[in-house]
Fold these 3 entries.
Entry 1:
Amino acid sequence: MSHTIGIIAFALSPDPREAVRMAKRGGFAGVEFDVSLPGVGAGAGGMWLQELDRSGQRELVRVLAAVDVKLLSLGTSAGRSGFSVGADVDRALGHLDKSLKVAADLGRTSGAALPLCVDIGPLPPPPVVIAPPPKAVDTSLLGRLIMPEPSLPVGPVLPEVPPDVAFESQLDAAMRALGRMADRYSVRVALRSELGSLPSLHRAMSAAECPMFALELDPVAVLRESKWTMETCLREFAGRVGHVRARDGLRGSGGRTQSAAIGRGHTNWSELIRLLDDANFEGAIVVDPMEHRDRAGAGAEALEYLRGLRGCFEGEGFGGDTPGEAGTPGDRGQLVGGGASVPGDDDSGGVVGELVCAGVGDDGVEEGLEVVAAGGAVAFGEGLADAGHSELVADGLAG
């Protein structure tokens, strides 16, 4: 399945026109604009998109259309404190109401529905439910059968985390209000939280019961979880993944992560793309290089990597958009396609079967390449030897 890949416009330039032109030159299909960018579009708080009248919105759409770049989404946040206790919830909701109106107006002007991506801020921790110990067996009821006395579970028992009732109550009320706004404007809201866990976000979205709410899937958020995998996340939010914020990181202890270039962190992108395809995901994948010093360079590297993965899943070649291209740096996992043609392959249709790669490093294919062919001869030429590997051995097949 083909996915539209875009980038955060502000990562390229604070000037919207220049950002759009740079996105086009970089090969991105679209951009995401932040509703509120400080210092852009002179005005209190720099709410430049909120200040645009209909004429200004039409001009923005013309700028995008002139270079054939799509407006994929808008981004904003509920503020540093979000809907937590002590926060100015009315102010946060007022800002989100204006942002939803901008998304609805620009959607009508551009002729395409625009999701609003919202970081809703801190979230209360989900309550930890401790399972009761197994019921003891009454051995007197077993007659002549002698049973050993049951032993109690061994090991420390974690204390139950009580729910933060005040925080949950205020959050749930604010989420219901946000849901009513989204329904009124007919704008889908893709939610994430930099300061809350995925189980907490799942609880908040479930309590709101709003069909306009979706998940903005952030792979780094999954890396922070100790018990949730990417598969768990896609299963728990089944049918509710509306947007993907593409970034990567290195996983540390205690839920800590460190920013990394896409494909060089601990995210299994092959698995993620496969899971999105299995879930029939039709939203956009927007690269977020904001934490990198060279944002434009990080964005270009991310696009090249993601295009390579997409090519594998569409059967366009191994690790790239063209047959015979060397493996994409950092690619791991299982790649299954209809064929992988390499220069020198006697069969132009490619190898029909499965490519299983234990590790693809920065210099191309390193080791563990196994070819399971559905039938017919397999001949390797020079296509996968770009990195200086003149010999590939796989289950007795040498090329």
Entry 2:
Amino acid sequence: MDRFSDILQRLRGKYEAFGRRLDEAEAVERWESAVGPGIAKHTRALRVERSELWVEVDHPVWKSELLFQKAQILVKLNGKLPEETRVKDIIFLDPRPTGPSSKYGNGGGYSPFRRTSNKPESK
């Protein structure tokens, strides 16, 4: 019987887009180990688009610090990965509001990383 990892590797080789999405998901998963637990508790890696990792940051001071450290973080994040799977840039985002007038929450106050609704966002 094939192991799940073997099946994923075969699918990665057969379907280029699937392999790319797996690489992107792995980059999101590597975020905490790249920045460490101290920074990770103030951030949330959201997604990878066009080799850019999008990260939500809970405070402008942390965002400024992360912009200063971006090159070092990219080195840690990418490690010895092949060029085609590397994250080329990091986009740091301000947190989404969750106040009473926000479409993201139920008015429960400011909490950048906790969603209070399972409803999909409308655009």
Entry 3:
Amino acid sequence: MAGDNVEDQVTVNRFPAFETSPPSADEEQRRQRNASDLEAARASATSGKRQAGDDPALIDTVARVMAQLPREVGGGRKAPAAGMSVAAGPIADTAYMPPPDFDPRVVEALEGFEHHKGYLASSQTAFSTAFEGLKQIAEGRKQAQKNQAWNDYQVLLNVGGFAEKVHMKMCKAFDTANSALTQGIAHIEKELTQPLENATGSPLAKEIRDHVKGLPEKERGEFLAIAIRDNDQLVITSLLGSPHYLSGLPKSIHDYQLRKYRENTKPELVGRQAAMQAALDLIHRRAPRIHAHVESAMGGKFSTLKRVRDASTAAEKALAFDQGTNSPLAS
């Protein structure tokens, strides 16, 4: 009915291994043979050997328990009873592969990588650590789910513990890369904005500054820009080798033209800084996604892992045995 609770329905698309179709003729015949064999075994095990008031025979107990279990279907899963809701369980069994976003080759694809790869090594290591770590977690879950001695909750506990360690390693790698790139960029920026050699003591330099100071404010910046374009070292050092107020240049124009001059004279530093900034931007965009991908690789949520672990710890504490007092309760 349209008003029925959708939680009480089986979504076949989400859980393709569950089927609710009636058994085939072969399955029905097999079920009838099993029931006949079970009845014969029960009769053999109980005939003339049980007294009124005795505990049920083992065969009866097993039969009663088995009767309560749903019929097995493809993939080893159980077909839900009609109207029963289907839960996803604590851990997924779908395959996982790390996305290309964390492939270390994304760093190699950055402009200027070949010329500055030594300065981008930490970022390449971070992405490699993440990519390989996600594969290790996924492979660990795959192998853990083959262990028939573990149920889904035990798989989550064991895979989750491993995933936490790998996750921590990934975070440290990205933190290291972030720190190295940030410090490297700042160091280059300091070099590109370092004042020129002081020329305030030169009489000619003073005359140049006085001349510029007497120009209209708009023309002062243009005068300096032309000197930089023409590589007029005398004017450049006279104006950029002294505080901006001595020539009347606005500080913003003075600092901008100083950096522009440094860029022209040190293109290697500019290219290195650009490559490092691109790698840093890449980390800032993609590193925050690591948490979600670790959960996908291990097949469960960290919040679920915490609940299962807390319940396991509480159970172990309740069952702790104090050897000193022979008490089932630990002190």
